[in-house]
From TrEMBL:
GGDEF domain sequence ranges: 211-344
Compositional bias annotation for Polar residues: 606-621
GO molecular function: catalytic activity
Lineage: Bacteria, Pseudomonadati, Pseudomonadota, Betaproteobacteria, Burkholderiales
NCBIfam families: GGDEF
In-chain residues carrying the UniProt-annotated modification 4-aspartylphosphate: 57
Chain ranges of the EAL domain: 353-604
Chain spans, region Disordered: 602-629
Natural source organism: Massilia violaceinigra
Domain Response regulatory residue range list: 4-125
Keywords: Coiled coil, Phosphoprotein
Coiled coil segments of this chain: 127-183
Protein name: GGDEF domain-containing response regulator
Amino acid sequence: MIPKVLLVNDDAASLLALESLLTGAARAQHYELLTATSGHDALRMVLTHDFAVILLDANMPGMDGFETAEAIHSHPRTSAVPIIFITAHYGDERHRLEAYSKGAADYLFTPVIPQVLQTKVAVFVDLTRKNLELQAKTRELSLLNQDLRVQRVQDLERINRALEQEVAERKVAEERAQALSIRDPLTNLVNRRSLIAQLEHAVAAADRHQGEFALLFLDLDRFKQINDSLGHEVGDELLRQVAARLLAAVRVSDVVARLGGDEFVVLLEGRGAPANAARVARKIEQAHSRPFDINGQRIATSTSIGIGLYPQDANSAAQLMKNADTAMYHAKQHRRGSIEFFREELNTRERERAQWVAELHAALERKEFELLFQPRAAVADGAVCAVEALLYWRHPRHGLIAASSFLPDVADRLLLEQVCEWMLGAACSQAAAWRAQPAPEVVMAVDLALLQIHPELAARVLAHLRTCKLPPGWLELEIPEHLLLNTRDNVAVLRQLKAAGVRLTVDDFGSAGAALAMLRELPLDAMKIDRAFVRAIGIDGGTDMAAAIVHLGRALGLRVLAQGVHTEEQLAVLQSLGCDEFQGELLSPPLHAPAMLALLRDQSKNDQTTSPNPNRASPSTPKKRGLSR
Ligand SMILES: Nc1nc2c(ncn2[C@@H]2O[C@H](COP(=O)(O)OP(=O)(O)OP(=O)(O)O)[C@@H](O)[C@H]2O)c(=O)[nH]1
């Protein structure tokens, strides 16, 4: 903006003279020169222009210079405009004082000295220019400031939004982490970590108030089989339904947790918790007695339960968990689906078991296992027709131990499989060795009690037969009835074995309550009556039971075998019932291989001496019994 200077004079000649004095300077110093010919004219102009200085004639008609100056300075917009009075009244001090009192910046007398006039005007023009520059800079600065403020506000808002989002996300993450840290995602039950915290709290509370509480340790039975045969998703759904039944069986205040896999824990606090424990355990047992319905499939399972009490059974949360787990383990060993309270004696058994397992591993390496053989003979003529291979361990300190004394306690499946593999291989190679000798050929029976029936079983058995060059028809596998209960996947394995010519016998028949329809479906050759029924012959309806089982076997089209035959009376009854073969102390105890071979040869000789009459001696013929080792 160009600074402006106003010349006010009513006398046209004076106005022109002054104007001409300043025109050159105005051009040189870049300011605009405007003129007014009266006070009123001047007042109008100050309202529409900003002047760097006003040169005001003091002596004008109408409104003189002083009145004009007063009016200009009375308006807020122009109150600070510098005014230089120009007058002809030289030396009139009164005028000069009045002029200053009306706000004059200076006072000049006519005739004015051009340089003085130009210099004074130049000072005010310069001042105004500087002011204008300053104002422009101030405006610029304030705009800049405003921009900065806007920018800052926008930045702050953006940062704020980002922060708010982060806080919200963190909150969600924290809530999730919190939920995950205390809940099992599959069942939504309390998880192991949270259970341990609650358990420690329960211990502290019991210690403080001389209170007590109970912990139930649960493990589903044969859950792996359900997973393996029906799939992991069915297994997952079963775990969810088990969780729901557990919650329904306890009070809201009780804690139900899933430790992982198929293990659950129930924590019962409050008065009478120990007494409640057995009641709740039975309730849980009952809750599991109804089959589960998963996608229309009915699945039956049971749970083994161990109970630990605080402070009776332990002095810390960790010890209580361990002891309840030990009790559960023993419940499972005793009978799946049963309940066991912890006793200190169980820990002793646990230590012994761990010791056995360690020693068994070493026994495999040191080749301390042996097979003994127990003959099985036809009930009709006492002729040995099969030999059952029985596993023994020649223990460095305890001597010869039967498998039934050390294997049922072993939970290590891999170890069991290794032992059973050894047994199958040894039995097949012994059978092949006897076939190469001049001795009557007998079937080799191997008890599968310790093996799970798994998809590779057929391939493994057939591989052993091939290695030993033993025809499959000379091998008989005895499969305990309880292993046949879940045969969904196993039927194919059994059919493979049967198709290859291996004989299959259901062992311990009558001990596990297998459904008859299922037995009919399976490719079985024979049924071996559980020794408990043989033992009961002649006692309180025992003979009728044995008769029913023999008839059942017949009805199913199976050969019927009896084991554990100790007396002539038992054998006579079995013969009268039409049982096919028998085994037991009455015939012979288990023998080492050479003694067994001798027995077979002995029988062969007897057969030849009685030849050509093919009829064998009657089972009651004493010479067929009690063959020496
Ligand atoms: N479906 C499912 N299975 C699981 C899960 N976690 C672990 N398992 C399986 O649960 C099974 C646990 O089996 P175990 O308790 O060892 O064996 P079991 O068949 O129940 O045998 P017993 O306890 O001796 O009667 C294993 O096969 C695991 O793979 C899970 O979240 N979902």
